[in-house]
């Protein structure tokens, strides 16, 4: 065991700042490329299925490495781990910027992903190590800025850059920050996390890769290929079988790669359940709003990105404030208020029509983001607070893994529901339209085309509204769960609410 003191008397703010920058650019890079995919298709002459691997492959590498992060964080020093991760990310960024072929670009993205996968779990673990429980809310609130703002501003920034410059500029902008972070960390980064000399179970890595990787790929492909596609259901089945085998193996091991026994802590288990449900619901707006804005209303990708920007700013502004409120009042009140806002605004999104103004959509999305900012980090921090110090790496790895998987499941579910409802509504509208057409009157091609376009838009709007309604129900489940949250005290025990009042009431009744 390392001799490093697990709780610092004075948190290393300078070191944490550089870790924040590294994590920010790595997470920003995950969503930065999505809008640029059509430009990359044109330059390298590849089809949509191939170019999608720039995003899907990045996600799969994260899904494979994040579960193993608990082992890496315990086995290696935080300095060596961060330097390795940042070096990989920097090399991948440089290679992507210079890539002459699509194959090299894809390889560069995989290298980037291998570096970025370690960033979030490592940063979260350092925050838990550097700050005592009573101050973690403020610290994790600042961490929330990285977690939510970076992916939110990615599409906006990407849309502006692609509109004015080459897609390579996306990597050229990130590269200086990556190089600066790497050089600065070489001189300033110190070791504060405890180490354990544990061995890596290779078979656990294999099971984890097939388990989480299979689930991520299967669910993320379902929205595009359909649930009945052999590649979709076969990878999901393989993922489920491998995941069950992984859990059983970890429970039998004295020193598991990923500790599933941490779910015996009730507040951590509850926070994980709320995070899973909320991650599924959160993706509704991130996916469905751009479809509504661009496809149905005809706005540009840049307009879609700008619509989401105020929400990202609000989340960034609110995260530190929410952290301070968490330290003072706990997670329960914040989560209940935040989820009421999220559920209400999501319901309003299920009532979209062809006339809603751009400003109204922006305000609705921003207010929804405000509610989100009050929930995710407080709930997650309260759950992690109950874990003993040695279980922190497993807690951070588990949280990040569950968010990845539940996000993919939520996105696939909502897109599938939208597509199914759209097809059913389109068929219904088409049959009604055919019934009203006088067969003796010849319809012009232009009139038929306009009628078909109107039917498609109305049907897709119906599908989007239905998906938002389902997302509202999912959010309501999280709201119900939030009422069971109890504050974790500095000694890791759950705060008993109104114990003295109950005893007094019993005495009076007696």
Automatic annotation (TrEMBL):
Membrane topology: Multi-pass membrane protein
Residue stretches making up the Major facilitator superfamily (MFS) profile domain: 15-490
GO molecular function: transmembrane transporter activity
Assigned keywords, A-Z: Cell membrane, Membrane, Transmembrane, Transmembrane helix, Transport
Family membership: Belongs to the major facilitator superfamily. EmrB family.
CDD domains linked: MFS_LmrB_MDR_like (cd17503)
Keyword Transferase part of the UniProt annotation: no
Membrane-spanning intervals of the chain: 12-33, 53-73, 80-98, 110-128, 140-161, 167-187, 199-219, 231-248, 268-293, 305-326, 333-352, 358-380, 466-485
Protein name stated in the entry: DHA2 family efflux MFS transporter permease subunit
Keyword Cell membrane in annotation: yes
Main location: membrane
Location(s), subcellular: Cell membrane
Cellular component annotations (GO), alphabetically ordered: plasma membrane
InterPro entries: EmrB-like (IPR004638), MFS (IPR011701), MFS_dom (IPR020846), MFS_trans_sf (IPR036259)
Organism: Oceanobacillus profundus
């Amino acid at each position: 065991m390392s001799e490093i003191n697990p709780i610092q008397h004075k948190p290393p703010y300078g070191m944490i700042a550089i870790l924040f920058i590294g994590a920010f650019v790595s997470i920003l890079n995950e969503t930065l490329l999505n809008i640029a995919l059509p430009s990359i298709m044109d330059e390298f002459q590849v089809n949509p299925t191939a170019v999608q691997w720039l995003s899907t492959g990045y996600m799969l590498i994260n899904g494979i490495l994040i579960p193993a992060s608990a082992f890496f964080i315990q086995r290696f020093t935080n300095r060596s781990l961060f330097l390795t991760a940042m070096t990989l990310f920097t090399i991948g960024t440089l290679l992507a910027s210079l890539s002459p072929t699509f194959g090299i670009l894809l390889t560069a993205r995989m290298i980037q992903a291998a570096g970025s996968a370690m960033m979030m779990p490592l940063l979260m673990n350092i925050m838990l190590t550097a700050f005592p429980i009573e101050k973690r809310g403020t610290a994790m609130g600042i961490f929330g800025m990285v977690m939510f703002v970076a992916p939110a501003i990615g599409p906006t920034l990407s849309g502006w850059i692609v509109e004015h410059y080459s897609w390579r500029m996306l990597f050229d902008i990130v590269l200086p920050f990556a190089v600066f972070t790497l050089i600065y960390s070489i001189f300033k980064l110190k070791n504060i996390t405890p180490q354990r000399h544990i061995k890596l179970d290779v078979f656990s890595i294999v099971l984890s890769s097939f388990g989480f990787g299979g689930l991520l790929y299967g669910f993320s492909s379902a929205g595009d290929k359909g649930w009945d596609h052999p590649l979709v259901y076969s990878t999901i089945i393989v993922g489920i079988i491998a995941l069950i085998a992984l859990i059983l193996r970890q429970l039998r091991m004295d020193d598991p790669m990923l500790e599933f026994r941490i779910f015996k802590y009730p507040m951590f288990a509850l926070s994980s359940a709320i995070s899973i449900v909320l991650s599924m619901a959160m993706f509704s707006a991130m996916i469905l709003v751009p479809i509504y804005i661009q496809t149905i209303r005809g706005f540009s990708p840049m307009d879609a990105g700008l619509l989401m920007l105020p929400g990202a700013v609000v989340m960034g502004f609110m995260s530190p404030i929410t952290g301070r409120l968490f330290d003072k009042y706990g997670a329960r009140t914040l989560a209940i208020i935040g989820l009421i806002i999220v559920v209400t605004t999501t319901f309003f999104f299920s009532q979209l029509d062809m006339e809603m103004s751009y400003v109204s959509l922006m305000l609705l999305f921003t207010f929804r983001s405000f509610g989100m900012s009050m929930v995710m980090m407080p709930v997650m921090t309260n759950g992690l607070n109950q874990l003993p110090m040695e279980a922190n790496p497993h807690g951070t790895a588990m949280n990040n893994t569950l968010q990845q998987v539940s996000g993919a499941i939520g996105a696939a579910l909502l897109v599938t529901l939208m597509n199914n409802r759209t097809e059913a509504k389109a068929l219904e509208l088409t049959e009604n339209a055919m019934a009203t057409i006088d067969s003796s009157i010849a319809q012009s091609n232009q009139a038929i085309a306009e009628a078909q376009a109107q039917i498609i838009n109305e049907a897709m709007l119906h599908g989007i509204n239905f998906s938002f309604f389902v997302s509202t129900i999912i959010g309501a489940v999280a709201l119900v769960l939030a009422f069971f949250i109890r504050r974790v005290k500095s000694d890791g025990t759950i705060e008993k609410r109104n114990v003295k009042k109950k005893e007094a009431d019993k005495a009076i009744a007696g």
